[in-house]
Specification:
It is built from twelve helices and 14 strands. With about 350 residues, the protein is α/β, with parallel strands linked by helices. It binds S-adenosyl-L-homocysteine (SAH). The site of S-adenosyl-L-homocysteine has 19 residues, from strand 10 and strand 12.
Length: about 350
């Protein structure tokens, strides 16, 4: 099988080409064609010798996913269902913020984390996505933005899947995303979101990269969290808190806590109070991103009333916790995580 160049970090490709007797600049040249000029045919890479182009053609490929369906919202959100080489289907979403274009990248085909409110888990994990497939998600969005004179400027690994259940591929992906010779996206514009796999959190803190980490907290205590996130049983707060503290000590970076507002479940003032104590008492260097819930037909949860959200934000802010409410996109398309895919691929009950 041919090896997809999109799956290689520059150091890995350099090493591989050196072993094939090429100069150490060869990989950078090929990266320049692919990421700089968006030229994906080896034959067009005219500064690479004909002999080596033959090697590339026989052993390598540059393979992007295919767009299976595409939905565009009135607010500029683009949601695509991508088809991978083996037929697997994966969602990516482009959100046009006023500060740039962010892509929500999927890291797995389906998800095994089983969060009670999430549409992604309606379909179990089939497999991990490769590094090349995640890079492909971004390149596809770039190709849709190119005619508009724009490019992807922000990446959130917040689509379907649990990134730390696919650690190595995701890490190479974010390195390629951040590389000035590849996707050229600033580290601070890249965020990886985890449901709380503690080994991954600790390891990530030691990578020496400036990429953001978001933790899907969604509840201020174990009891509530375990009701909606099965992972909280394997990693209760007694394990999660030390992992977060270790991450902060190692990386020196501020964490983001994601907190979905679910009506009458976790949106009371009492929950806000507990959340403040959780952050303060454990000396966590974090800010809170409140997420309006995208209702999922198959799930019993409802979004919180605006007044509840506002009261929650006010309480956090008054108590010195930095907090924002996530802007919503794509209200008129299948915007909720995993919704488009579950509709197209079919939810088996
Ligand atoms: N598995 C990772 C990343 C994927 S989910 C994680 O759990 O963080 C990305 C974020 O979207 C998570 O915070 C997740 O809880 C949230 N999410 C899932 N379904 C949602 C929905 N229907 N509405 C709003 N946010 C949702």
């Amino acid at each position: 099988m041919k090896k997809n160049i999109l799956g290689y970090t520059l150091p890995k490709l350099t090493e591989e080409f050196l072993a094939l007797g090429q100069s150490k600049f060869r990989a950078k040249q090929v990266f320049g064609w692919i990421y700089g000029k968006k030229v994906y045919s080896f034959d067009a890479m005219t500064d690479v010798s004909k002999d080596f182009r033959n090697v590339l053609n026989s052993d390598y490929c540059v393979e992007l996913p295919k767009i299976f369906t595409k939905q565009e919202s009135n607010d500029g959100t683009i949601k695509v269902l991508l088809e991978m080489g083996d037929g697997a289907k994966v969602e990516s979403v482009l959100m046009p913020y006023n500060y740039g274009d962010a892509v929500c990248v999927s890291s797995q085909v389906g998800c095994n984390m089983g969060c009670a409110f999430c549409a992604s888990g309606l379909l179990r994990k089939e497999r991990n996505l490769t590094t090349a497939e995640m890079v492909g998600e971004v390149l596809i969005m770039d190709s849709l933005l190119e005619p508009l004179g724009r490019k992807v400027t922000h990446i959130d690994v917040m689509g379907t899947g649990e990134p730390f259940d696919n650690y190595d591929n995701v890490l190479d992906f974010v390195k390629i995303a951040n590389d000035p010779f590849a996707l050229e996206i600033g580290a601070r514009h890249i965020t990886v979101s985890t449901c709380g796999l503690c080994d991954g959190i600790k390891k990530y803190g030691k990578e020496g990269i400036q990429i953001n980490l978001a933790l899907s907290l969604h509840a201020p205590n174990d009891e509530l969290r375990q009701q909606i996130m099965p992972i909280a049983k394997a990693y209760p707060f007694s394990k999660l808190i030390p992992a977060l503290q270790e991450y902060s000590a190692d990386s020196g970076r501020r964490l983001t806590f994601e907190y979905i507002m679910l009506r009458d479940f976790n949106d009371t003032l009492d929950c806000a109070k507990q959340l403040v104590s959780f952050i303060r008492d454990n000396n966590l260097f974090a800010y809170v991103n409140l997420i309006p819930y995208n209702e999922v037909k198959e799930k019993p949860y409802r979004r919180s009333e605006k007044t509840r959200v506002n009261a929650f934000v006010d309480y956090l802010k008054k108590n010195g916790i930095n907090c924002t409410v996530r802007k919503e996109f794509g209200g008129d398309i299948d915007a909720a995580c995993g919704q488009l895919r579950s509709k197209q691929v079919g939810v088996k009950s």
